[in-house]
Amino acid sequence: MTEAPLIALLAAGRASRFGADKLAAPCSGQPLASHAARAVLATGLPALCITAPGPRPAWLPEGIPAIANPAATDGLATSVALAAREALARKAPALIIHLADMPCVPAALLLALAAVPGLAACHYPSGRAGVPARFPADRFAELCALTGDRGAGALLADDPAVLLLACPAEDLVDVDTPVALARAEAILAGRRM
Description:
By secondary structure, the chain is α/β, with parallel strands linked by helices. The protein is built from six helices and nine strands; from the N terminus they run βββαββαβαββααβα. The strands form two sheets. The protein has a seven-stranded mixed beta sheet, sandwiched between helices. A two-stranded antiparallel ribbon has the order 2-3. This is NTP transferase domain-containing protein. It comes from Novosphingobium bradum.
């Protein structure tokens, strides 16, 4: 068994609310998803990226293996389940689920999730638990059983034992619309100043 958790960067969504390939959309001088991928690489943790079928995304660094999800059109849960099956195969002690359309999540937040024991998630301003989130190996079977367009959020919401990590709201921007893309770009530009 490996000591470090596996990070799964999920990038197989349809981007239906965005109206285009949002992961390749320009954001602060590079493709949107490259920000999340760079943060994953910066952790030094083992990682993989769940992609839609087709060519490897140009924004995905060579240091992160890509696994195509043949059932991507069936919803987000299929990508979560595929990542959990890969974590099982690798005998990972835990799986960190991260989304490629969250460009403002820093490597430090992913490392904080990796360092805590058990089930852990980001504490959103709304009060809910959400991704990025850490699932220990004893929860992989539940992740593998997920179906539809809901990710692992239901498992987080129903578990009173989930450890919530305090996170700045700006770290948790999820780009689903052009307006959210502009907000993420402003946050990233502010961090470079």
